[in-house]
Amino acid sequence: xxxxxxxxxxxxSDTYTELSCTVDIGKLVANGNTSGGNGGxxxxxxFANVKIGTLVANxxxxxxxxxxxxxxxxxxxxxxDSISATSNSAGSGGCIYLTTGGTSLTLNSGSIEGNTASExxxxxxxxxNSASSVLKIKTNAQDEYLVDFEDGSILxxxxxxxxxxxxxxxx
Length: 171
Description:
The chain is an all-beta fold. It is built from no helices and 18 strands.
């Protein structure tokens, strides 16, 4: 497909009004999808609010583009309770690509490993292209992330930061 090989969530308004939609998915398995554009499996953008209980995303590809498993932009908000993502690939953000100020992603638990970004230093697990995008990752009482990543696989533009959230806090 052109964008989002398995799912594309977008709110569109030709008057540029800030509309929104909410999508709540209990479990989503998106394996082996290919997108000629952004988001090999999922493309979420323009004021979409998406909550996924369990996401399994393996062997997805955004050919020559961004976000092998998922591309999030346009002030979209995504929360994933449990993620398992391996062997996804893209130019930047081998697994996940965040862009545009106001875009947010919350990861509560899981594993993101073995993904590939073909562009040098563009985040095998995740690339954040906007310093004003928000990445929240749950932590335990010892301040250890509850999502497993390979070392050095979360990268972003200057000013990008991860916001740790204690596992007993509401996001």
